[in-house]
Design goal:
The chain contains seven helices and six strands; from the N terminus they run H-H-H-H-H-E-E-E-E-H-H-E-E. By secondary structure, the chain is an alpha+beta fold. The strands form three sheets. A two-stranded antiparallel sheet has the order 1-4. Strands 2-3 form a two-stranded antiparallel sheet. Strand 2 and strand 3 form a beta hairpin. The longest helix has 23 residues. It is globular. The mean pLDDT is 75.
């Protein structure tokens, strides 16, 4: 079982890494049928003797899993020095509790600002237009750098600082949303081409993160107090170095669902 899990984990990582690499076929027209960098071969390689053949749906599911996992890991690291109020010790936190946990929601939003799981959004212009003095012809493929937008000092005070408080106001509700209504915070894109899984992703991450915080204290392996937050290459912006934590039980016994 461990061997199979390791193989799936490696597959997910490789797919995300390859999808985010610079591919000459995408930018130089006479290279479109030439696999000069070997990316096509690596993507198509599969064990012909395996019992299950991977489909496009399988690969999409793996990438979604990878994005959620990476995001939760970022949250856990950034939470080391933060206290989060959660329901008591008699039961596990539920999705219905999230609406009453504004600071937890703020932590999720601040993490999305600093470490969006998808650093780039791809769009195509439908007509000729001019943006900041640049003439953009129709049918031009455009890359929107959401990673840079979330760190723009013109819109964010101390943009490199992790401050969930910037998403909380006096009444406990946030002024900013991550669903594409504010163009200086676009982790899920905006408009008709925004991520269709936004609500599912937010619910999954917030519920998972809440349970992990409620049930365990998380300490860095080796007793350290800081971790390397350098980001590596890939479609889902994974960490360059794995985060290894030791969970310490906070609730004993753990409450049952």
């Amino acid at each position: 079982m461990k061997k199979e899990a390791d193989e799936i984990r490696k597959l997910v990582h490789d797919v995300a890494e390859l999808t985010g690499k610079f591919n000459l076929q995408d930018f130089i027209w006479f290279c479109k049928n030439l696999d000069l960098q070997g990316f096509g071969k690596r993507l198509k390689d599969n064990d012909e003797s395996s019992e299950m053949k991977l489909t496009r749906e399988n690969i999409k599911s793996f990438i979604l899993y990878e994005e959620t996992l990476i995001y939760v890991v970022h949250c856990i690291y950034l939470l080391f020095s933060r206290a989060v109020e959660l329901p008591g010790k008699s039961r596990l936190v539920e999705e219905s509790d999230i609406v009453n946990l504004p600071y937890l929601q703020a932590i999720v939003k601040e993490t999305l600002r600093l470490h969006p799981t998808g650093p780039m959004i791809v769009r195509e212009s439908t007509e000729n237009c001019t943006i900041n003095g640049y003439d953009i012809p129709a049918r031009t493929r455009l890359f929107v750098n959401t990673w840079a937008i979330g760190r723009d000092p013109n819109h964010w005070e101390n943009p490199l600082e992790f401050r969930p408080e910037r998403f909380v106001v006096e009444d406990g509700k946030s002024q900013l949303d991550v669903r594409g209504q504010h163009f200086h915070l676009l982790p899920f894109g905006s408009g008709r081409r925004s991520c269709p899984g936004t609500s599912l992703a937010l619910n999954m991450v917030q519920a998972t993160l809440s349970a992990m915080i409620q049930c365990f204290d998380w300490k860095l392996s080796g007793g350290g107090v800081t971790a390397d937050m350098e980001e590596g290459p890939g479609l889902t912006l994974p960490r360059a170095h794995p985060l290894i934590c030791v969970p310490v039980t906070r609730l004993n016994p753990l409450p049952l669902l």
